[in-house]
Every structure is written in structure tokens, then in C-alpha cells.
């Protein structure tokens, strides 16, 4: 294999190379980084971001943006908590169904609002989702009076906090249930985008709306459905957070949208639209999770962690712009 092919492979898989280098670096710096317990924690922390990124990928491929997903997650978690209070003796299967249904319904409603405003009223995506982000966060605080919703049954925590497949070193379980749930959702989102006609329409609209329209694609419908899917994954993220905390927090999901956007762009989804992948976005989520966990192990001050994540977001945008310029040449 000659140097040009190696460079091409590396350039097309920068996020994978970065992830490997980060793992090696943190593994050298901390003896516990590669422990089974820490790997399990990384996967668990990655899940909420992965759920958000899987839906955001659709919207960003369209050339749009959705910064309301964190607030959608917060509202979904609160609604799920209030619903859980109505069934104090619910068992685990009922709790899982309750959480999923709540997340899907709340996510659909919020995504529908964004989709209608953007697709049919031609509101600029950034302005639209900034407005709904602010409004929904206000709704979250109004619903709760600024206080957490607690007193839920133990079964409520199964989806977000429990583990399965116990081992000798981890008798309470080695695999978080939330990881299994996230894999199922992300796989479904990936298949829908990469293997269906609707997925091809998403790419077509993101590449050129006018050409897509002339080709017979219902651009407004594709935009609406994509925002609904984004809302649904945000809603599912919110109920997972509520389940993990075993309460509904009015500020849950705050700033999560920035991590999700950074992960999606790091995974190769172009902010200008037309290209992207749910599967590759997961590598971006892994990079964010590894950095956060690694800095925690090294006891780096939380404020500095925010600085690092902010720099990663800037780097992701710069890399996206550089890649677009290179393609145009």
C-alpha cells in the first residue's frame, strides 16, 4: 500500500484515528482507563449523546440544525416522571413501556412543532430551534416549579441505571441496560438513513433542495419527518436521563445539544448538508465520552473540561469547512 492510499484512508477516518490515539494516551496516563468497569462507564455516558446525535444527523444532513434537543429531553424526562408517579407499583416491563411511549409522544410533538415551522412556514432552523429551546426549557421549569420530580418506583430506574450480565468483577452486571437500548435505537436510525428510500431522499434534499423538488421528492415532507425523528430520539434521551436519575430534573439535558452537534460533525456529517452517517456519528460520540471520562480520571477541573469540549466543537467546524473546500477544488 503506497503513501497516497494510506493518507487517503487516514483522511477519511480521522475521527477513528483520533479515538485510538486518545484511548492510548489516557490508557498510559491512567492505569484504570482500560478496566472493564471504566469501559462500561464510558459506554453508559456515551448513550444519551448517541441518542441525540442519531436524530441530529438527519437534520444536519438536510443542511439544518436543531439546538432544542436538550430542552426536548428535559421536558420528556419530566413528563415521564409525572407519568411514573401515577403508577407507584409498576413492574419493570410496564416501566420500560411507559418510558418509551412517553419519550416517543413528547418527542413527536416537539419535533412536529419544529418541522412545521421550518418546512411549511420557512422559519430559519437556527432561529426556530433557538426559540423552541428557550420555550421548552421554560415549560420544564413551569411544570416542576424548579424542583425535581421524585418519589418514583424502583422499576423506573431499570432502563437508565440497571445492568445485566453479571461477572465476577461486576456482580451487579457488566452491561448497562441503557447501552442495549441505545444500540437498538441507533441501529434503527442508521438502517432508515442508509438502506431506505426515505434515507436517500434526505441526502437528496440536503444536497440540493431545488433539484430534489424537480425530481419529485416532497421536500417539505422529508424535512418534517426528519425533525420528528430528531424529536423522538431527543425524547428517548430525556426519559433515559430521568430513569438514570430516578427523577425528573427541569434542567436535565442542558447544553447536551452542543455535545451532540460536535459528535455528529466529528463523525463526518457536513454542516452544509448532503453528507453524513449515523454510524460514523457514533465515533464522534465515543471521542467526546473518552475525553470526558479520561479528564475525570486525571482529575482535571470541570471548568477546564468545558474549555476542551468547546475547542473540540470549534475544531469540528473548522475540519468540516476545510473538507468542503478540498472537495470544491
Q: Provide the helix percentage.
A: over 70%
Write down the oligomeric state: single chain
The total strand number stands at: 2
Largest sheet: 2 strands, antiparallel
| Residue fraction in strands | under 5%
Q: Radius of gyration, rounded? A: 20 Å
How many separate helices? Answer: 14
N-to-C SSE series? HHHHHHHEEHHHHHHH
Mean pLDDT: 91
Low-confidence stretches: none
Which descriptor suits the 3D outline?
A: globular
Task: Name the features.
two-stranded antiparallel sheet
Structure description:
The chain is an all-alpha fold. The chain has a domain at 33-254. It has 14 helices and two strands, in the order αααααααββααααααα. The protein has helices spanning 3-12, 14-29, 36-61, 69-85, 92-119, 125-144, 158-161, 177-195, 197-207, 209-214, 219-245, 256-266, 278-297, 302-328; strands at 163-164, 175-176. It has a two-stranded antiparallel ribbon with strand order 1-2. α2 packs parallel to α13 (278-297). The chain is globular and about 60 Å long. The model has no long low-confidence stretch (mean pLDDT 91).
Q: Layout of helices and strands, plus pairs?
A:
Layout: H1 3-12, H2 14-29, H3 36-61, H4 69-85, H5 92-119, H6 125-144, H7 158-161, E1 163-164, E2 175-176, H8 177-195, H9 197-207, H10 209-214, H11 219-245, H12 256-266, H13 278-297, H14 302-328
Antiparallel strand pairs: 1-2
Amino acid at each position: 500500500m503506497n503513501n497516497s492510499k494510506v493518507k487517503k484512508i487516514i483522511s477519511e477516518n480521522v475521527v477513528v484515528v483520533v479515538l485510538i490515539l486518545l484511548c492510548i494516551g489516557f490508557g498510559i496516563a491512567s492505569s484504570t482507563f482500560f478496566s472493564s468497569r471504566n469501559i462500561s462507564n464510558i459506554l453508559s455516558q456515551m448513550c444519551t449523546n448517541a441518542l441525540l446525535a442519531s436524530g441530529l444527523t438527519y437534520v444536519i444532513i438536510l443542511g439544518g440544525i436543531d439546538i432544542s434537543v436538550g430542552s426536548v429531553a428535559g421536558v420528556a424526562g419530566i413528563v415521564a416522571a409525572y407519568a411514573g408517579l401515577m403508577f407507584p407499583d409498576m413492574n419493570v416491563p410496564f416501566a420500560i413501556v411507559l418510558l418509551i411511549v412517553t419519550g416517543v409522544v413528547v418527542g413527536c410533538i416537539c419535533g412536529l412543532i419544529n418541522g412545521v415551522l421550518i418546512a411549511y412556514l420557512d422559519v430559519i432552523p437556527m432561529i426556530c430551534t433557538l426559540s423552541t429551546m428557550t420555550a421548552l426549557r421554560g415549560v420544564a421549569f413551569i411544570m416542576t416549579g424548579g424542583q425535581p420530580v421524585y418519589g418514583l418506583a424502583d422499576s423506573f430506574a431499570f432502563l437508565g441505571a440497571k445492568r445485566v450480565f453479571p461477572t465476577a468483577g461486576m456482580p451487579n452486571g457488566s452491561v448497562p441496560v441503557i447501552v442495549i437500548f441505545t444500540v437498538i435505537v441507533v441501529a434503527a436510525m442508521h438502517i432508515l438513513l442508509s438502506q431506505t428510500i426515505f434515507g436517500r431522499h434526505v441526502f437528496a434534499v440536503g444536497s440540493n433542495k431545488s433539484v430534489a423538488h424537480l425530481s419529485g421528492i416532497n421536500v417539505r415532507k422529508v424535512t418534517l419527518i426528519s425533525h420528528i425523528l430528531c424529536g423522538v430520539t431527543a425524547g428517548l434521551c430525556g426519559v433515559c436521563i430521568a430513569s438514570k436519575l430516578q427523577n425528573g430534573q427541569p434542567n436535565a439535558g442542558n447544553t447536551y445539544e452542543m455535545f451532540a452537534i460536535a459528535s455528529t460533525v466529528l463523525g463526518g456529517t457536513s454542516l452544509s448538508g448532503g453528507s453524513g452517517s449515523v454510524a460514523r456519528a457514533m465515533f464522534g460520540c465515543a471521542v467526546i465520552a473518552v475525553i470526558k471520562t479520561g479528564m475525570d480520571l486525571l482529575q482535571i477541573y470541570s471548568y477546564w473540561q468545558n474549555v476542551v469540549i468547546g475547542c473540540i466543537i470549534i475544531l469540528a467546524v473548522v475540519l468540516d469547512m476545510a473538507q468542503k473546500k478540498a472537495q470544491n477544488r
